[in-house]
Amino acid sequence: MIKEIVKDTFLLSQKSREATFKDLAVVQDLVDTLDVNRDRCVGMAANMIGALVRIAVIVDHGKIVTFINPQILSCSGKRVLEEGCLCHTGMKQAVRYEKIKVEYQDIKMKKKIKTLTGFEAQILQHEMDHFEGILI
Which structural domain, as residue segments, surrounds residue 71? Predict the structure, then answer.
């Protein structure tokens, strides 16, 4: 279901909890909401639609990929970039890594490991900041 984008900084500044099987309905809501906003959005964290769980979806080389409870295992190539977010207006600076290796669960809650580089790595790091209540 397409959800409204949360702009309430109090909600967005809350830390998200680990996702469980009970939270999997959030995945489809995130995919649907990202899909209708693809002209201006390349990733979404669950708190952006009001769910304080560690689920993110990103556009990875044209395909929407789901990351449940992602954790960065390794990273390299620190950069300072300008980013925007659907939750606020304007651009802000953020420090991001060029390459990250991430452990996460897929939509079947199966553990996976994936290496992301460049823009895709930047997108996931932005969404993971949302999990910590960091507003970029």
Answer: 9-131
127 given a catalytic annotation: yes
- Going from the C-alpha of 16 to that of each of 12, 45, 80, 97, 98, the distances in angstroms are 9, 10, 25, 22, 25
Q: For residue 17, what is the domain's CATH number?
A: 3.90.45.10
pLDDT at residue number 48: 97
Distances (CA, A) of 57 to 10, 69, 71, 72, 115: 22, 11, 14, 16, 15
CA dist., res. 46 & res. 99, Å (int): 23
- What percent of the chain has pLDDT above 70? 100
Catalytic residue chosen out of the listed positions 82, 83, 103, 127: 127
Confidence of residue 89 (pLDDT cuts 50, 70, 90): confident
Q: In what order do the strands lie in the sheet with 55-60?
A: 43-45, 55-60, 63-85, 88-105, 111-117
Give the pTM: 0.95
Q: Do 106 and 65 meet the contact criterion of CB atoms below 8 Å apart?
A: no
In a domain, 103, yes or no: yes
